[in-house]
Amino acid sequence: MKARILRRTDALIAAGVVPAGRRRAVERVARRFAVALTPHVVELVEAGGDPIARQFVPSAAELRATPKERADPIGDERFSPLKGIVHRYPDRVLLKPLLVCPVYCRFCFRRETVGKGGALTARELAAALAYIRHNPAIWEVIVTGGDPFLLSPRRLRAIVRALDAIPHVQVMRLHTRVPIVEPSRVTPALVASLAAEKAVYVAIHANHPRELTAITRAACARLVKAGIPLLGQSVLLKGVNDDAATLEALLRGLVALRIKPYYLHHVDLARGTGHFRTTLAHGRNLMRALRGRVSGLCQPTYVLDLPGGHGKVPVGPCYARALGGGSWEIEDPVGKRHRYP
Ligand SMILES: *Cc1c(COP(=O)(O)O)cnc(C)c1O
Ligand code: SF4
């Protein structure tokens, strides 16, 4: 029998992840934002405690929005020429075939849209693919959502094949949290649906070392065996991974699973996510702490997605300072400054 995804507050209380006394608050949050926990995540919460629970279990803190927070924190709407497409950079587009996730992360930057719409209809998907086909500048298609790994292998295969057949599309990248939150879904059939002539990358969203269980390791291994390079994407979250030791364990854990850390995201200004936000200064200090101490393979780029749709920008520490006359002052991994002629 297939274990059920928990959505209702009653079910969360019965599973022991929400105390009965919080029922009213959690019900209010659930009326505002989508809630879901997979049985695997309930086990992760039981084994992993606070850093896992904070990410997935709704809390009253989500009802507090500040004036700086927004419904569309990274300004996607302005760059959406048609349903299911976001085209901000000339050479790449987002394709969002569905707005459903197996779990709903409490800090999600798309929290006002995910879990509220379903999948694109066949006609909408065909229009989105036609948009890509008719734009020869599009070199890469980033399939995201929602979570594209929730599509059936048959539907995923149809999308991958359609993109693979577009001559100017050279690279496909799928962004997913499924290997972490519902690893049993990464079946041989799902992996086979990603087979293509063109390069297919899978970017996996993970935020805490305790998310990297043996089942997740096996799911990642199946993808790697199929020749799919894996990238890691993490969000810097207060109370989850905002200390050097946890970040180091996460990044080392990802690389050991053959996942190359790609981005560490500063939390976007989505409504009701203030309890997750650290300062940029703190994030930069963490990046500085990792540099030199941890293998270069483990170093992600620390990025901020600018509000208003201005795009992603690296905001990590800078180690070089121009002195004029073509010479530079460079800081080494232990913080000592050197003149570079
Ligand atoms: C994040 C994002 C991308 C991908 O950016 P990369 O820096 O290539 O990972 C592309 N389009 C949009 C709209 C995005 O938000
Ligand atoms: S899996 Fe991604 S899109 Fe879905 S809720 Fe989490 S952060 Fe948002």
Summarize, please.
30% of the residues lie in helices and 19% in strands.
Describe the structure.
With 341 residues, the protein is of the alpha/beta class. The chain folds into two domains: 1-63, no CATH class; 67-309, TIM Barrel. Helices cover 30% and strands 19% of the residues. The strands form two sheets. Strands 1-2-3-4-5-6-7-8-9 form a nine-stranded mixed beta sheet. A three-stranded antiparallel beta sheet has the order 10-11-12, with no helix packed on it. The longest helix has 13 residues, at 244-256. The model has no long low-confidence stretch (mean pLDDT 96). It binds pyridoxal-5'-phosphate and iron/sulfur cluster. Pyridoxal-5'-phosphate binds at residues 86, 88-89, 92, 94, 142, 312.
